[in-house]
């Protein structure tokens, strides 16, 4: 089938066309309005979605070189996310499904991040069940055991901040614009990651916590700035690299525990933070150290995109999992 996927859960408006498991187009309009606020402003996000959605969908159809009439179903993000943002995509998907008279498929955004691994790609071997997925994004940090398409268990989650949120909030302390994650990654390349050390959380079981690292960076900066008001500027590279090392260390530690707990050796990473260069390097090391098979998503499928919504749509279509027009957005939709 040919499916249109629509994603509008946070601050990216995106539309994609998939044919079977092959992506024909994936258009993402990233909202710039939030840059100077240090985070996403929900009211501004829904307004921007409203402006972007029609041109983004048109462009996806145009770029895929298909006509609207060829669309067999419409997949949309039901949640989780910001309710005002979700409502734009949900309403648009419902209206279009009525006017084209094609079925509607609701998609969980976090399942989308994981399912990006099922997108057909000639350059990598397909992922096989069961696998563990470390999903690290702006709002979530989870280790999910994926037994089959619609059989997955969350083995553990974060107790407070998500990994991406930790990158963004600590980046903000260091004076970086939102989203700070990609910038912090880039600046870290020039830094010494062993210059400063921040404590890792001590947690039993598959659990994450990042608010302690954030607080310890805050107190450390306050102390150093008292001695030298230019401390951050003079040491930005080393500070970024040291923070990045700490966050990634915390993630890998729990991923290893999950591997030992379950005995599962197929390991995937997903979500915006899976774009991080240090995380990619460290996860690949599990090949040697733990005899794992590692699956890393293509960069364009890490941060929010509609290709990942379209692939869930395509697989749900195969299993005839449709939804009716009474579907509504759910900000706290669970996988
Ligand atoms: P969720 O998926 O939990 O609803 P989200 O959709 O807002 O949250 P994503 O778009 O998946 O999150 O990811 C965005 C996050 O990824 C941001 O916090 C951003 O800073 C982080 N991120 C993106 N690239 C990198 C990178 N190279 N290094 C570290 N973090 C990164
Ligand atoms: Fe996301």
TrEMBL record:
Superkingdom of origin: Bacteria
This entry's Gene Ontology molecular function terms read:
iron ion binding; tRNA N(6)-L-threonylcarbamoyladenine synthase activity
In terms of InterPro entries, this protein maps to: ATPase_NBD (IPR043129), Gcp-like_dom (IPR000905), KAE1/TsaD (IPR017861), Peptidase_M22_CS (IPR017860), TsaD (IPR022450)
Give the record's GO biological process terms.
tRNA threonylcarbamoyladenosine modification
Is Cell wall biogenesis/degradation found in the keyword set?
no
Q: What is its EC number?
A: 2.3.1.234
Keywords, comma-separated and alphabetical:
Acyltransferase, Cytoplasm, Iron, Metal-binding, Transferase, tRNA processing
Subcellular localization(s) per the UniProt record: Cytoplasm
A Pfam family found in this protein is TsaD
Residues engaged in binding Fe cation: 109, 113, 304
User: Which chemical reaction does it catalyze?
Assistant: L-threonylcarbamoyladenylate + adenosine(37) in tRNA = N(6)-L-threonylcarbamoyladenosine(37) in tRNA + AMP + H(+)
Enzyme class per UniProt: transferase
Cofactor(s) the record lists: Fe(2+)
Query: What is this protein's function per UniProt?
Result: Required for the formation of a threonylcarbamoyl group on adenosine at position 37 (t(6)A37) in tRNAs that read codons beginning with adenine. Is involved in the transfer of the threonylcarbamoyl moiety of threonylcarbamoyl-AMP (TC-AMP) to the N6 group of A37, together with TsaE and TsaB. TsaD likely plays a direct catalytic role in this reaction.
**Recorded family membership:** Belongs to the KAE1 / TsaD family.
The protein here is known as tRNA N6-adenosine threonylcarbamoyltransferase
Q: What is the protein's species of origin? A: Apibacter adventoris
